[in-house]
Design brief:
alpha+beta, 4-stranded antiparallel beta sheet, homodimer, 7 helices, DNA-binding, Jelly Rolls
DNA sequence: TAATGAAATTAGCTTTTGTTAATTTTTAAT
DNA sequence: ATTAAAAATTAACAAAAGCTAATTTCATTA
């Protein structure tokens, strides 16, 4: 979320390309990097016991991203990250971030601000799950991130808002008929 | 979430009592304090257009709490905080925290760690909304926070997991019959 | 351009949830 | 202990969502 311009780790970033549909981060890995997305969209998803893919997040160009449980708690992740378009990333080793944070006030402040931004985003999403029906979550998503929605398959949107693809299709139909 | 012991703002904290069922934070306020809960439980909730109360959060003894949009963005909140038991709080002025953060490395690190912990908690909750049905969310809640659940009315639990009180009652009945 | 495969939609049916209202149970107060 | 109020449960019905499978649409590539 934090623009890279304000991020002093830039000189240590290494470019990385991921082709559309390729897996960037594998399940079970302790992925101790943060990465800036220069171009493209990725999604992170889980595979349920019944084998379904459930998309949790989208991240796209201009955003920083990471696997929270990996960088905060050194835990292996159950998430999988997949590029939905050809992606250009800049990777930064998180151990280096930690090391530099030992005596770098500005960096720690930046990290704090970043965590706070992510927190606000996540809390908004929890609120929407508590307050809104799936239909409203979909409408808000279209209103707030129209350009992203267009670039992502509906089936991924569906689990992002907590429903099945079939149900999202019905929601779309309902909304279309209400407009007329 | 962060124990107060590790929190150097303790000397600046002011005690505050809130009786059970009383409103602690009013809607529309820019509540620029953080507070430590020495004793008791509070909930934060929204009132929907149709007048229903939707509980978003519980916070209880041993935890730090704040209204994110107030302290991060100086925005008035739509949340209401209510004490569910007689509460003993320790309030800390957030402007003071900000001022002390200007040149206090340890404090900024503590705040970063706190934001990260809250973020992990919030992300887990989003995951549960995407991956689990209400029934599973309820079961996980019982498994993970049994002592808290017992102290809180079911109708508040219901909106916390994203269903109506009637639906939670049915979920409870289903689970009870499955056990036998 | 045609063919192939994936995605989205639709249909039919089942399960769950929402809604409203009545009833029972629990809690708190007199 | 009795009463009053609130909370939880139950019931009945409508609406929405899940599930499976068939069909249509869309996108990719040979």
């Amino acid at each position: 979320m934090e623009p890279l311009g304000s991020f002093q780790m830039l000189p240590f970033a290494k470019p990385r390309m991921v082709a559309a549909s390729e897996i960037y981060i594998q399940q079970g890995k302790v992925f101790k990097k943060i990465f800036f997305i220069k171009k493209g969209i990725l999604r992170s998803y889980y595979i349920t016991e019944s084998g379904e893919e459930k998309t949790i997040f989208f991240r796209w160009e201009g955003q920083m991203a990471a696997v929270p449980e990996c960088i905060f708690d050194q835990e292996p992740t159950r998430q999988i990250w997949q590029a939905l378009e050809d992606c250009e990333l800049l990777e930064i080793d998180f151990d280096l971030v930690e090391k530099m944070s030992e005596n770098n006030f500005t960096l720690v402040r930046t990290r704090m601000g970043f965590a706070q931004k992510m927190l606000l985003e996540s809390l908004k999403r929890v609120e929407s799950f508590v307050l809104d029906k799936p239909e409203m979550r979909y409408q808000k998503l279209i209103a707030q991130k129209p350009e992203i929605i267009k670039r992502v398959a509906d089936k991924h949107i569906a689990s992002f808002i907590g429903v099945t693809p079939v149900s999202l299709s019905r929601i779309r139909k309902r909304l279309a008929s209400q407009k007329k």
